[in-house]
């Protein structure tokens, strides 16, 4: 019990610090946005690049992990989308619900957790999660939301191309691709360059959690409480359950699955609350209130669900 508390307490204490700093006007929301951009555009890309560049690709591209994470995410998207459709929810809100239930916060919450639980594998776990999220789960959810808009003559292929092009411009994806390119080339980065990447990466964990807490302090949570609660439950319960189910199912189909540390990590990764830019993406479709409410419920609820999962699995 104390081992679990030792993992969970620092995570939510740092987030609580961020919340308090904004709530009591030490920092404001504009400050959190600046700090968030630093984490998103500098610290996490440096972390990904350094973690991958110093490893052989065979260590990073774990097919079993990606199969399990991808299948669990796709199943979550499908079930959540159909579930809210049966309730008569509109197409844009269905896409928002599917994204909230299936896209975890691997960078701001997941990485700090993995750093405490599996310090030697945290960077690789983050890279594996980002590959599946940025090249599969997030594009599918964005497509579902985008299809709710009038296409004005644009083909489905054109919409899909626009989504992927925007994703490829993200600094985290560029950091990921740069790390793969260096690893594939067989070149070793000079020691001073690696130290710079490591210094920037070291700043990501605590700062990301402070930003998450500070961002929660300024969220507008006026939204559909019933649907918001369902999205939060989908993220914290349905998604990890389906990923755990994929661990059992895939060997029956002759497909590889991770074992040991990575098997635990893939389920824990799915159990993280949704990513921090979720309300921003939903805002483009007029549903930022629903997304903010869901994010608030999932992030606070994760204090309980993650504690239970860690006590059971670690």
TrEMBL record:
It holds the Pfam family Mem_trans. The keyword Transmembrane applies. InterPro entries: Mem_transp_PIN-like. GO terms for biological process: transmembrane transport. GO terms for cellular component: membrane. The keyword Metal-binding does not apply. The chain crosses the membrane at residues 6-22, 34-53, 65-84, 96-118, 124-145, 172-193, 199-221, 233-255, 261-281, 293-313. It is a multi-pass membrane protein. It is found in: Membrane. Keywords: Cell membrane, Membrane, Transmembrane, Transmembrane helix, Transport. This is Transporter.
